[in-house]
Each structure stands twice: as structure tokens, then as C-alpha cells.
């Protein structure tokens, strides 16, 4: 009996253990996600065959499984291997299926998935070139950070995912994919450029999104150099839109507002108190608030200018030495973009500094740029508005580029001044020898360029030998230019006219004040009605001129421009309008420029439109495996 009881108890224990095991297995099954190793339907070849016969059940099931957000690496590899084996059957009829395959999440996956996906891409574009555009669109879509949805106050806000640690690796893989595609399809460049243009983020997107996309665009030019001109044109064109959307006056006002608000919060301090706070306010903004622009559009532009200037430097310098061949090729591309986009854009403030920066690498580049501008100025076949803009670039470049030797400056003046005299000779005896901007716009712009250059460079001309310097200035015969019937002093900006008059009077070159006073009497303000009222303002800028290389306002990229830029230094011994101008004391953070401050009206800038153009309109590849340049290693 005892033995029977023991046997019975053992059976009960075993049954209880079995029940406990079954309960644990059931609990694990319920609490754990299903394994993704199960596949439904047949293989890809059989599924395509059934689809051809009209049976679409397995076909739809296949697309559903490929779209599973929880798909595993092993499954992706198995699917891609099957698709590679039947890639010749993936005709245009299977466009939806191929689209699902291309959307597989291959970035951020294991190296085995990446390699299998790239192999599939190479097989697909080789066997079915009809999918080339789809493959290129897929790759380019990953040039910006992925989008995430942030819920704030019950509202879903889409933003870029900047926290993705795999972002640099993902970008590397995208460029590797483009190189693989271009290796198998030589005509890739012809189809890629429109896709790059269409996928360019809207300029009001975040700085981070624009930064990533522009960086990747410029990186494409390293292994597809034939696209460089077009990509630079695309990038600089979008930057111009940002540039003209952030006028100089708005940027200056935005930068002044934080300091004014800080002073307002503190109130008027008592004398001798809060000296430390006052010193903090006078500290340069780069030390106090970082290098972030207060103006949101200027902040985006600053980010893109920083990338573009870094790209220019890394293309031109190899191991710290200037590579002349690469520099010349880049110069030609940038000048082509300059002629097409930058020169016809009135009142842009910063994008043109890309060429300014490039020209600082070698004097020969600066001289070539000046010669290029000069050809535009003197060529009568060019529209007058472009000739005027080119003259403004010549004068501003000669005045502001501190890397130019005085020999180069004098050589340019030796071209400009004789041309002015020849122009006067051709007009003095004619019926159009009177002041008219519409008739003589290029002449007046060239005069203003000469005056502006002499204001900035006269001291360097006179340094060393005062006698030789004076002889050089006297042989220009500036008096004939000033006193001719075309009357350039009436058209030039008043600030330039007054400063030029003060300098030429000091050195007894020309006495301009008689002409200035006569011009002032002839341009009295008009009154709206005979009973009085508001007077109509006098146009003080009939040329609608601007100076392209006026002070650079962007903070981060400005660090590269500052060492090569000539700031305005007030001549303390010159009297303007009969009174000696005091030298203004400025803090280290305040821009010591510019004697034109407030003189040039700020107009609404238009891309592709120059002043007066309202009635007329303008008419060796590197190997795929080449090592990346330093620009490509910039961290995200």
C-alpha cells in the first residue's frame, strides 16, 4: 500500500510539473513578439509566375511582407537574394513591387544587409535601366535627416531627427550607392541632376536640413566632377534666395535688438556701478552669445556659406599646398555661376564672397577676376545694367580686397581712367553730352568705381614716394572727368562725392565743391502742391548702385573673410563739407565700417533683376574609389 501511495504521489508531482511548464510556455508565447522567420507564400520566382497567369494573392502577400516595419535582417537578405536571381523578370509591369523593395530599410542595418542591397541595386540598374530614376530618387531622399513627429500642445510637429548617431554612416552609404549606380550606368549624371534639383529642401527648412543636403550635394562633385558646375549653380541659386530675403538693414537691426533689450532690462545704471555689466555688453557677440545669427534667414545663409567656403578651400588645397589645376577648374566653374546668377542679382550681400575668398588664394586669380569684370564693363554688346553691376564689382573689389597689391590696383585704374577719357571724347561733340543716367549708366558706374577706389587706396598710392604718388594721381587728369558735361558728381552717391572732394582738395588734385554746390541748387526738393505740404524726396542714388563687397555680416563664415578684408579707416586729416570729421571710437565687437552707412537705400532685392532691367531681360573624372577630401570628413 505504501509503495502504491509513493508511486501515485510521484505521478501527481510529474503532472503538476508538466502543467507548470505548459503555463510558462504559454505565458512566454503571449508576452513575446512572434518570430519573423515564418514566410507565407512561395518564392519570388513562383510568385511572379502566378502573377503572370493572373493569380495575385501571393503577389499582394509578398508586398505586404516586404512592407513589414519589423522585418529582420535575415529576412531582408533572403528576399534580396531571391530578387537578384530573377532581376531580368522585374519588368515595368512590376513597378509597384520594385518600389516596395527599394523602400526596404537598408540604412542602419548590418553590413551584410548593406552589401546585399548594394548588390541588388547594381543588378537592377544593369538589367532594368527603366528603374534608374527610382533608384536615384531613393538614394537622394536620404540626403537629409529622417523626419520625426513631435507632439506639442496636441499638435503634431514634423522635425528633422538630429539625434541619429548613424547619420554620418548613412550618408557614406548613400554616396557609395550612387557610385555603384554610376559605375554600371554611365548616363547616371544626366538623370541625377534633375532629381537633385527637385529634392532640394525648401529654403525655409531648418538650418540642419539645409546643411546636410548642401554638404551631400557638394560631396557628389568629388566622384561626379562633370556635375560640379550644375551643382554649384543649384546651391548658389538657393543661397541667393536666402541672401536677398535677408537685407543688410534687417540683419543689422536683428543683431542690435538683443543688446538693446539687455540694456533695457538693466535700466539706466548709476555712475560707477555695474561697470562689469557694461563691459559684458561691449564684448563682441561671438564671446557673449556664440556665433548664432539673430536673424533666422541669415542664420541659414551663414550655415551654407560656411559649408561652401570650406568646400572651396578643401578642393583647392591638397596636403596644405595650393593645387593649381584644381583651383583653376573651380575658378572657371564659379565664374560661370557668377555670370549667370550672381552678377544679375541686385543687392545681394554675401554669396559673392565665395569668389572673393577663392581669389585670395593667389594673386593671379584676383587679376583674372578683375580682367573678366573689366571685359564686361567695356563691352557695349552687354546690357547696360550688367555693365553697371560689373563696374560696381570692380570698384568694391579693388577697395576691399586687402590681398591685392597696390601695383594691381594701379593697373586697374590705368584701364578705367583712360576709358573714361575716351568716353568723354566720344560724347563731348555729340548731342547727348548732358547728364542722363539712362544714356551713360556704365560711364557713371565706372566713375564711381574710380572715386571709390581712390578713397580707399590713395594713401597706399602715396606711400613710399610722395612725389611719384602725386605724379601718378595728377596724370589721371581727374579734373577733366569731374568737370565734363556729363557731370558724374551729380550721379554718384553723396557720401562718395563728399569724401572724394575732401581727399582731392587736400592734395590739390581737383576742387569739386563748386560743382557739388551747383548740383545741390539744381536738385532742390519739389513740393507736392502750391499750398505747401510734404516735399518729394530727392533721389540720392540715381544709379541704384550698391557695393557688393560691403562689410560681411555673417558670424561663423565671416571668420574666413575677416583676415582678407579691408575695413574702412577714417582719414583723420580730411575735412568733409568744410568740417573735420571726428574719428568715431568703436568697441571691438562693433564693425568699424562704413562711411557709406545710411547712404545707400535698401531696396527690395530681386534675384535675376538688376536696376533698370524692368523693360529688358537677359538673354577629367576621378575614379570611383578615390579617397575623400577633407571637406567630406566634416562631422554632422
TrEMBL record:
A Gene Ontology term for the protein's cellular component: nucleus
Single GO MF annotation: RNA polymerase I core binding
Start and end residues of each stretch annotated as Disordered: 247-277, 576-627
Leader peptide range in chain numbering: none
Matches recorded under InterPro entries: RNA_pol_I_trans_ini_fac_RRN3
Gene Ontology biological process terms, A to Z: transcription initiation at RNA polymerase I promoter
Origin: domain of life: Eukaryota
Family from the record: Belongs to the RRN3 family.
UniProt name for this protein: RRN3 homolog, RNA polymerase I transcription factor
Organism: Lepisosteus oculatus
Amino acid at each position: 500500500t505504501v509503495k502504491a501511495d509513493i508511486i501515485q504521489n510521484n505521478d501527481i508531482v510529474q503532472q503538476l510539473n508538466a502543467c507548470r511548464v505548459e503555463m510558462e510556455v504559454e505565458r512566454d508565447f503571449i508576452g513575446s513578439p512572434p518570430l519573423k522567420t515564418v514566410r507565407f507564400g512561395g518564392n519570388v520566382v513562383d510568385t511572379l509566375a502566378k502573377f503572370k497567369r493572373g493569380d495575385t494573392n501571393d503577389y499582394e502577400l509578398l508586398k505586404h511582407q516586404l512592407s513589414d516595419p519589423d522585418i529582420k535582417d535575415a529576412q531582408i537578405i533572403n528576399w534580396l537574394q531571391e530578387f537578384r536571381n530573377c532581376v531580368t523578370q522585374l519588368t515595368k509591369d512590376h513597378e509597384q513591387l520594385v518600389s516596395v523593395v527599394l523602400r526596404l530599410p537598408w540604412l542602419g542595418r548590418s553590413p551584410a544587409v548593406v552589401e546585399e542591397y548594394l548588390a541588388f541595386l547594381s543588378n537592377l540598374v544593369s538589367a532594368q535601366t527603366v528603374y534608374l530614376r527610382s533608384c536615384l530618387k531613393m538614394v537622394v531622399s536620404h540626403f537629409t535627416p529622417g523626419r520625426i513627429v513631435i507632439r506639442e500642445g496636441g499638435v503634431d510637429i514634423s522635425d528633422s531627427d538630429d539625434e541619429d548617431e548613424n547619420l554620418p554612416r548613412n550618408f557614406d552609404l548613400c554616396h557609395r550607392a550612387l557610385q555603384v549606380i554610376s559605375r554600371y550606368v554611365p548616363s547616371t549624371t544626366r538623370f541625377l541632376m534633375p532629381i537633385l534639383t527637385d529634392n532640394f529642401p525648401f529654403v525655409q527648412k531648418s538650418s540642419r536640413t539645409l546643411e546636410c543636403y548642401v554638404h551631400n550635394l557638394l560631396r557628389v562633385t568629388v566622384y561626379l566632377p562633370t556635375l560640379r558646375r550644375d551643382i554649384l549653380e543649384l546651391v548658389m541659386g538657393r543661397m541667393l534666395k536666402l541672401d536677398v530675403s535677408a537685407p543688410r538693414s534687417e540683419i543689422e537691426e536683428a543683431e542690435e535688438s538683443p543688446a538693446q533689450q539687455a540694456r533695457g532690462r538693466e535700466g539706466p545704471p548709476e555712475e560707477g556701478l555695474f561697470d562689469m555689466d557694461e563691459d559684458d555688453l561691449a564684448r563682441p557677440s561671438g564671446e557673449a552669445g556664440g556665433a548664432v545669427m539673430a536673424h533666422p534667414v541669415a542664420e541659414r545663409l551663414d550655415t551654407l556659406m560656411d559649408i561652401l567656403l570650406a568646400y572651396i578651400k578643401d578642393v583647392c588645397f591638397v596636403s596644405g599646398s595650393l593645387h593649381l589645376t584644381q583651383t583653376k577648374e573651380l575658378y572657371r566653374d564659379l565664374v560661370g555661376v557668377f555670370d549667370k546668377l550672381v552678377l544679375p542679382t541686385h543687392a545681394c550681400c554675401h554669396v559673392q564672397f565665395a569668389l572673393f575668398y577663392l581669389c585670395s588664394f593667389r594673386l593671379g586669380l584676383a587679376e583674372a577676376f578683375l580682367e573678366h569684370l573689366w571685359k564686361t564693363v567695356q563691352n557695349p554688346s552687354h546690357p547696360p545694367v550688367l555693365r553697371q553691376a560689373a563696374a560696381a564689382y570692380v570698384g568694391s573689389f579693388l577697395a576691399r580686397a586687402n590681398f591685392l597689391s597696390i601695383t594691381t590696383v594701379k593697373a586697374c585704374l590705368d584701364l578705367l581712367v583712360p576709358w573714361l577719357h575716351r568716353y568723354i571724347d566720344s560724347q563731348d561733340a555729340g548731342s547727348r553730352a548732358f547728364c542722363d543716367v539712362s544714356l551713360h549708366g556704365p560711364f557713371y558706374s565706372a566713375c564711381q568705381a574710380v572715386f571709390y577706389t581712390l578713397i580707399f587706396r590713395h594713401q597706399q598710392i602715396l606711400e613710399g614716394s610722395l612725389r611719384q604718388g602725386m605724379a601718378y594721381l595728377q596724370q589721371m587728369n581727374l579734373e577733366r572727368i569731374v568737370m565734363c558735361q556729363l557731370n558724374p558728381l551729380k550721379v554718384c552717391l553723396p557720401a562718395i562725392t563728399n569724401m572724394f572732394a575732401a581727399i582731392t582738395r587736400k592734395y590739390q588734385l581737383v576742387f569739386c565743391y563748386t560743382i557739388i554746390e551747383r548740383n545741390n541748387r539744381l536738385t532742390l526738393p519739389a513740393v507736392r502742391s502750391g499750398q505747401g505740404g510734404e516735399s518729394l524726396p530727392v533721389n540720392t542714388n540715381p544709379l541704384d548702385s550698391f557695393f557688393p563687397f560691403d562689410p560681411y555680416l555673417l558670424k561663423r563664415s565671416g571668420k574666413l573673410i575677416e583676415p582678407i578684408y579691408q575695413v574702412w579707416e577714417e582719414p583723420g586729416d580730411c575735412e568733409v563739407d568744410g568740417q573735420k570729421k571726428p574719428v568715431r571710437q568703436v568697441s571691438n565687437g562693433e564693425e568699424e565700417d562704413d562711411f557709406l552707412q545710411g547712404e545707400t537705400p535698401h531696396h527690395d532685392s530681386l534675384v535675376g533683376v538688376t536696376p533698370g532691367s524692368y523693360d529688358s531681360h537677359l538673354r577629367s573624372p576621378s575614379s570611383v574609389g578615390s579617397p575623400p577630401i577633407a571637406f567630406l570628413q566634416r562631422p554632422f
